Description:
This protein is of the alpha/beta class. It has helices at 12-23, 54-66, 80-93, 105-117, 140-152, 208-225, and strands at residues 2-7, 27-33, 47-50, 71-73, 96-99, 123-130, 169-171, 174-180, 186-194, 197-205, 228-231. It contains six helices and eleven strands.
Amino acid sequence: MTNVALVGGTGKLGRIIRGVIDEADGFETTAVLTSRSSLDEIAGADLVVDASHPAVSGDVVRAAIDRGMPALVGTSGWSEERIAEIRPAVEAAGTGVVIIPNFSLGSVVATALAAAAAPLFPFAEIVEAHRDTKVDSPSGTAVRTAELIAAARDEPVSAPHADQRARGEQVAQVPVHSLRRPGVIAQQQTILSGPGETIVIQHDTSDPAAAYAPGILVALDAALRAEGVVVGLERFVDLRLGA
Length: 243
């Protein structure tokens, strides 16, 4: 039995993750931490799962690293720069940290399709929408998509007038536009354009609990085996793109 310390277990994502763990064979939630909890409460667990807040997620991960414990991170806000800061400590500790920007398998497919198409289109922009209670922007999924688009290309995407604030935040030189409003759960559009044509790759989440559960199970198993820092659910899912 794998004992799990769940940080942020009373939040929206935390409650979904706890529900999945409660139904999963081989996993048990033995500690549920809130914003008022001491991180010492993770001691004794086999796996730390972070579903907290971007402002404290780094502390949670470092607490796990210091104790040589593997960690699964579902909290947003982990850019390439932030990940690079913890990578040496993770490797020195000989443990693993798995960072999942989005547990939805559909979102993973949409991001992979965007990265696969990116070399064929000189223009790319991302528009993401979440409910007004989401505290961070851009979303972790949008950041990950932008970074993969940039990595897939030999040259930066074309982003005219990038110095204008209305052109969105530049993430890996890809313009990202964030909407925060009631009446939406999660939606992302990746818009790729070239001469005479445009392709729009859109993913919508209508039921987070149902959408995230399969990906959470995959990530829980992966986090126990991971070595070093691993980012993205796509690392553990056989998408067979281009096969």
